[in-house]
Amino acid sequence: MTPLIERFVLHFGEMGSRWGVNRTVGQMYALLFLSEKPLNADDIVNELGMSRSNVSMGLKELQSWRLVRMAHHPGDRRDYFTTPDDTWEIFRTLIEEKRRREIDPTLSLLRDTLMADPCDEQERHAQERMRDMHELIELATGWFDDVQRLSPDTLASLMRLGSKVHKVLEFADRLRPGSRE
Questions:
Q1: Class of the 3-82 domain?
Q2: Where are the domains of the chain?
Q3: Of 141, 132, 149, whose CA–CA distance to 105 is shortest?
Q4: Cα separation, 30 vs 16, whole angstroms
Q5: In whole angstroms, what is the distance from residue 82 CA to residue 38 CA?
Q6: Residue from 60, 96, 98, 97 nearest 81 by CA
Q7: pLDDT tens profile 55-96
Q8: Which of 87, 84, 104, 111 is closest to 144 using CA atoms?
Q9: What are the Cα distances from residue 21, in Å, to 36, 37, 119?
Q10: d(Cα 83, Cα 86) in Å, to the nearest integer?
């Protein structure tokens, strides 16, 4: 591994723990992402100096996140792994998995708690706060669903607009009939 690749792999390992996967899985993903060709478990063991069992468990984790694809070589019984080439596809997959693992269970809990009859003023207040949270999460996930349908080029253009979107919205408000400006 070159120093440049090693630096990226080590950084991804450290970031992995902040993103919900362990260091080993983060390093494995970074190695697979940068690799010019699909790697098998033995290649990963040799490159990263990890145990075979850690690599096997890490590959299962990456498969459960749908972040790696399996490939086969003719005459070779080993499984080879690679990441999608399209970084937008990777980003979308990560967001979908985070939503499925973290957001959806939270929305389910919030829906259940909002359907319960509050037994006192403290619970009424708590439900109002939960309702606010539920509405915000529903708004954000609805927006994400809309954005998810955009092409990568359109999505990149939208992201490049950044805070300029605010100016466009202000301008649109001024054009509406009955606006004060």
A1: mainly alpha
A2: 3-82, 87-175
A3: 141
A4: 10
A5: 5
A6: 60
A7: 999 999 999 999 999 999 999 999 999 999 999 899 889 989
A8: 104
A9: 24, 24, 40
A10: 9
